[in-house]
Amino acid sequence: MTRKLYYEDTCTKEFDALATACGQKGEHFLVTLDASAFYPEGGGQSGDRGILILQDQSEVKVLDTHEKGEDIVLTCSGPVPAGERVHGILDWEFRFDRMQNHTGEHILSGLIHERYGYHNVGFHMSQDRVTIDLDGEIPEEEIALIEKKANEVVWADLPVRVDVLPQEEANQIEYRSKKKLEGEIRLVTIPGADVCACCGTHVARTGEIGLIKILSHERFRSGVRMEIMCGRWAYEYMEEIFRQNHEVSVHLSSRLYETGKAAQRLVEENARLKGDLTGILFAQIDRMAKELEGAGDVMLFAPDSDSRIAMKLTAKIMETSGGSVFSFAGSDKNGYKYAAGLTDGDLRSLVKEMNRSLNGRGGGKPYFQQGSIQAGRLQIEAFLKERYPEITCSVFAIS
Ligand SMILES: [Zn+2]
Predict the structure, then answer these.
(1) Is-contact 300 396, C-beta < 8 A?
(2) What pLDDT, in 10s, does the model give residues 309-334?
């Protein structure tokens, strides 16, 4: 049986113990100690990590910790023979992150339970965030309010009390629990915010949590799934967002707290310019169609344009030129989008042949074909000149 030092004082970072058993599992070693400050995986919280220093001062890494019956078993990088005295040192940042997040989760779940009567039906802690599943929906506009209330509990720096009570005594108290418990019950109390049966490790005072941030909330089954971050995780996340916002403010020449408005102005301006540009382009296409009136067969290249321009060019010019029109938009490097048209004509077999010879694909109506080809301008010109010796070749450039 292992003495659970993490319950006697959750802030124990180093301790001495005796190895009582050592087995091998794959490339790792499963070491049992007579006492452990390493917390075993449980209640949604990961097992602790750290190192063990042996009598000859050599070290083995503790990669994970689990509970097995009455024992705490450490997954280690090397063997620790039974009878060996060890000095254990926890990866404290790893543990403290989880204590901040676990306690923050209690505060949020407790406040939500009190306000809406919902239960926390799923709790998961990953490498940098916590997921909470609740069995009811929270109105969108109240999320910020709950987050603020949770942070007020942090600012109040309340003591986090842990009581291990006999079942009958615990049942006199109203507490949250995922399942029906029997025997001794470990109650974690945050005055005014939460009472919850829990086997995890928590900070001693709520002030140590630092910050509680709700990142997202979405419908999940018949309730809601929330992603939260507390403590250092939340700080580092917010720090990155601050840095991003600072960059945006520099690019948009706006104040840090007005980047949203500045971005909106930019998007509107962009849409307006796009509209203006389309107007200019279409007017230019109309002019080109006039210039090519009666020109007969025409091939056009629109460097670095897109399929929309190719289609518009062909559609307009085939009304005036009186022959077959082939427009190619793009570049030799990235290939061309094409549109081929002939009023009341049928270009299907020609386009099929073009696709075959110039590595292309496409199709459409007999009189209007469109697609893309992966070939250079010289190859395209050669292909069409062979079939239309009199064809006019022109370039459409925005001016
Ligand atoms: Zn808990």
Answers:
(1) yes
(2) 999 999 999 999 999 999 999 999 99
